[in-house]
What we know:
- Two copies of one chain form a homodimer.
- By secondary structure, chain A is α+β, with helices and mostly antiparallel strands.
- Chain A has one domain (2-78): Mth169, Chain: A, CATH 3.30.1280.
- The first copy, chain A, has two helices and three strands, in the order βαβαβ.
- Chain A has helices at 16-27, 51-66, and strands at 2-9, 33-46, 72-78.
- In chain A, strands 2-1-3 form a three-stranded antiparallel beta sheet.
- The radius of gyration of chain A is 16 Å and the shape is elongated.
- The termini of chain A are close together.
- The interface between A and B is medium-sized, with 31 and 31 residues.
Amino acid sequence: xxxxxxxxxxxxxxxxxxxxxxxxxxxxxFKGVTSVRQGxxxxxxxxxxxxxxxxxxxxxxxxxxxxxSVIESYRVELL
Amino acid sequence: xxxxxxxxxxxxxxxxxxxxxxxxxxxxxFKGVTSVRQGxxxxxxxxxxxxxxxxxxxxxxxxxxxxxSVIESYRVELL
Lengths: 79, 79
């Protein structure tokens, strides 16, 4: 079973990478970009076959390692 | 209009970040993880209102700045 975790900076948390991208896009002539946020996506291949068990295991991975819940939020999708 | 770009290392390209995550998850006791790939997700707020124009503009941003097409593939979604 495959899972995809999308991790984004929380609303209100500064995102200097996103801001750098917005600035660079403007410099390349892409003028209509008002805001950019950059996050991470992590795709996992799991041995688990039960969707609910897989989802809760991936949530525990996020809480323990993958995401910093103070400044990041995450979303788990099973593929 | 919002767009989300998901950028992943191409199949066959080494992904040391993903491998480091897999190793760390194993060390934390998550044994059923066979493979991990890490990529980026970039969310853009655009002034464009036409979906087709927005999609092609974001594809040009990917080709010029956001993705390295030699080692990365990207997917554009309009939200």
